[in-house]
Amino acid sequence: MALTPKTKAFAFAGGLLLLSTIMLGTSLASTGTALAPFMRGDAYGHERGMARGHFHGLGLKVGQMVDGELKPLEGATVVVARMGVDRAASNPVATKETDGRGVAIFQLKPGAYKIAVTKDRLTATYDLRLQTSVHLMLAFDSDGTPHWRQENHRQLERRGDMAGLLVRVGENQSGERVPVEGAKVQVYRINDDNTTTLVSENTTGPRGFVAFQLHKGPYLVKVSTDDVSGEHRLRLFGDTAAGVLIDGDEMHWRVGKSDAHRCTDSPPPRRGGR
């Protein structure tokens, strides 16, 4: 039966609402990024403090109306470019493709950006001033018309059983702590039977930081570089900071509350390499 224009409009509006609901409720931990919980809408309210103002999260979910149903758009190319004072886009700073859930996630410095999304005949652009972590939703209707929706993390925040984990990796160079960029950080949930499940992973940025938002509970955190690796068990009760210092072939851990000035030393580190 053919749909009337009014029915199509109602179906599209309902689909867009469904897209928003999915973004708030769907677990995306398997995306392998520290910002996956942010895409679920789980409390990312401490992101600014944890990232110390240097980076914000940009989460984008793209959908398309197909036969009256809004479905995730996989394989769409998302290009993020800095935007100058004349609002013209400069060279891209990041490019990704949406995954099977239509999701692409970025960590960016504050500033003005132009977001471009393309997939076959579909194309859309969006001017964004990133001053806090932002959640973007893009839905193409049946004729390819794009519809954008933007919310920041404070609007999406769901307080409750979430806690932030900030991992800072540095290296001892002649008595000076130097940030380690590109260190791989993996977070494993410790199950009741003492097995572990990988829930998130990411690499440290230029200042040696990487932030996660996780459900409170027990975790195993693994950090590895080209020369050394180590792991540490911790229980998240609230926002937690983990300092990792690489000294030769040793890795030293120091864990405490992220908003506290004192930390407690960890047990002896596990040595390793690859």
Account of the protein in words:
The longest helix is centred in the first third of the chain and has 21 residues, at 5-25. This protein has helices at residues 5-25, 36-40, 47-51, 153-156; strands spanning 56-66, 69-72, 77-83, 89-97, 103-108, 111-119, 122-130, 134-140, 146-152, 162-173, 176-179, 184-190, 196-203, 209-215, 217-224, 229-236, 240-247, 250-257, 264-265. 13% of the residues lie in helices and 51% in strands. It has two domains: 7-35 and 46-156, Sandwich (Immunoglobulin-like); 162-265, Transthyretin/hydroxyisourate hydrolase domain (Immunoglobulin-like, Sandwich). The protein contains four helices and 19 strands. Mean pLDDT is 76; it is low at 17-53, 155-159 and 259-274. The protein is globular and about 60 Å long. Strands 10, 11, 14, 17, 18 and 19 form a six-stranded mixed β-sheet that branches. Strands 1, 2, 5, 8 and 9 form a five-stranded mixed β-sheet that branches. Strands 4-3-6-7 form a four-stranded antiparallel β-sheet, with no helix packed on it.
